[in-house]
Fold:
Amino acid sequence: MKIITKTIEVYGFSELGNDAKKQAINDCIHCMLEDIEYDNMTENMRKAIGKAENMKTPWFAGSYVYEYCLNEIMENVNGYSYLIDGSIYIDN
Structure:
């Protein structure tokens, strides 16, 4: 029998480099757009989706979410631990 201990370095959002922070923010926006049903979205999120629809530019929805929901995004990303590349660390 062997016992192997693996050490994983995890970081808070503020400890990440700029590219990793961008990755974490983009992942957060993607999850917001994919996982939250419209009826459960915040008012700012609905405004962002509405702007994308009104402008007939659904591919910019993520940019509008960033513009309208930055405080929500930052609150969310600051609640997780990350690997050095900005991906969320989930303790199994």
In short: The helical segments are 18-35, 43-54, 61-77.
